[in-house]
Every structure is written in structure tokens, then in C-alpha cells.
């Protein structure tokens, strides 16, 4: 229980408008997924696919090609996290 | 199930007194998803921010179609985020995935009790840390746009055309190299400050409104004490690289660093 006093509302005011796409990056592929007793097994709904359909596919048909890694291989680093299983690091 | 109220869970915090009190005061008066008040449900060492939502919108069948509706998705995502951001300003939070829904609060309590050790371990890791988003953009000259001839030039010759094509290709390659260098620099500059990195897909499509091509879309978990230094380092990582820009978003609650608990199943 260290450091709770460090929270002094230094963040931007709650409600500050963030870009929807940055939010969806986090809400649809991040956050703890709990399976088991959830009435909705959200794990069964592929939210990444949902976001693709909702956000991207409307204007880009050749999605899979477009999303190939843009840059040459980057060397994984010690703290690399692996990106939620979207694709191997 | 449609007339039923379900329990929508946003995030987990510690249930010990200082943390729970801070969470409660943060949630007071706040409206969450479906404009419902948000309450704290405690069980064991963990507590969850929860609100009642209509089964007609959040049943499994309803959700599947609602999630395809961008307006609904945006409203829900923003409401979910508001609750998490409000909590994160006051205490350490563990964000849950969008649309984590239980039959009722007693199921939430049971889940908290069963998973309290996992939750506590993650909360310990997130204490006094923030997430920064770091995106690298490159203004790549379009492939289909080999610089138009200047009107005053003499009529185009085959040779002049080829020269323009070559110059255009070189400009593209130089911008790509600068973009790669910028990505390397963000990685190098993160070392020693960030404790973890997660990668998101580069952003494309109608919602990617910033100019240029997004070539890297990373998230870093950074100790709060180093947060400003980290942001400054990133913002200046591409200062001398033409055609390349680094955008920093955040600070965010640690949305991108929750993977270890993903896929946890009942034994």
C-alpha cells in the first residue's frame, strides 16, 4: 500500500475528450478480460474484429495487406509486452 | 433477459479503506454507461466500480449488434473511459475490458473474491505508474503523386519525367528512413524510464484523423515520477527528422498492460 498519497488529481480533468481511435485501441484490445462467471463471455466476441469492421473496413477493403507491419522487424526489447496477442511481437 | 438489469463492471481497485474511500468519493455523482450512477462493490481485497445497465442493450445478443454501431460504441467507450479516468485520478485502477457484464452485483462480488490475489498483484504493479501512448507519423509523399511539372518548365520530356520519378522515390525512401530512425529513438529514449511496452496496430481508416501515416503506435508504462521527463523525451525524439512527427497521448490508466490476466479461466 505504498504511494496512495501521490494521487493529487494531476491528471487532465476527467472528461477531457480523447481521440476515439486512441480510446478504442485501449478499450477493445486492452483491459482485463475475465471469463468464467460473466453472463456475457466477452471473450467470445472478437472485439478487435468489431473495431476493424466499425472503424476501418468501411473505407479499406484490402485490410489484411494494409496491416502488415509497416516497418522492418524491430528487435524486441527486454520490456516488450507482446501486444495482447494480436500478432507475435 | 431483456427487461432485466445487468451489472456492468468498469474497473477494479483495492477495497482497503483509503483506496475504497478515494474511489467512492471519485464516483460520487458520476454517470457511467447508460447514464447510470456508478457504485463500488467490495469483496475481499478487491472492489469494482459497477453500474446497472439494461439487459435490452447489454445482453449477449444485443451487444453483438450494438458493437457494430459506431455511435453506440463511441458513447459506451467514452462512458467507460470517464469512469476509469475519474477513478485513476484518485487511486490505482485496473481497467476491465469494455462491456464486462454480470447478471447482478452478487456475481461481481464472487468474481472479486475468486480473483483477489491476481487483482492485487496487478494493482501492485500499477501503483504510481501511468501509461503514455507514443505514435510516430511520417508524411510520406504519395506513391501516385510524382511531383507535378512546374507550369513554366518546357514541355515534359521522357528524361525529365524519369528524373522526377526518381526524385520522388528518393523522397519516399528518405522519409521512411527518417520514420524508422524516429521509432528507434523513441525506443531508446524509453529505456531507463519505462518499465513495460505494449504495441498497438498502426492506426488507419476514417478515425485516424491526424495527418501523415502512422508507422508506430506504442504504449509505455512509466513511473509517475518520470512521467513528465518521458513525455518530453518523446515529444522531441523527431525534432531534427524532416517529415516525421511524434505524438504523445495520455496519461492513460494502464489499459494496455493488463495482459497477464487475460484468458484466466475457472479451473
From TrEMBL, chain A:
GO cellular component terms, alphabetically, are: gas vesicle; vesicle membrane
Q: Which domain of life is it from?
A: Bacteria
Put simply, this protein is called: Gas vesicle synthesis protein
Which keywords has UniProt assigned to this entry? Gas vesicle
| PANTHER family named among the record's database cross-references | GAS VESICLE PROTEIN A1, GAS VESICLE STRUCTURAL PROTEIN 2-RELATED
Molecular functions per Gene Ontology: structural molecule activity
Whose protein is this, by species? Streptomyces caeruleatus
> Cellular location of this protein?
Gas vesicle
Q: Does the keyword Zinc apply?
A: no
Task: Reply yes or no: does the keyword Hydrolase apply.
Answer: no
- Assigned protein family: Belongs to the gas vesicle GvpA family.
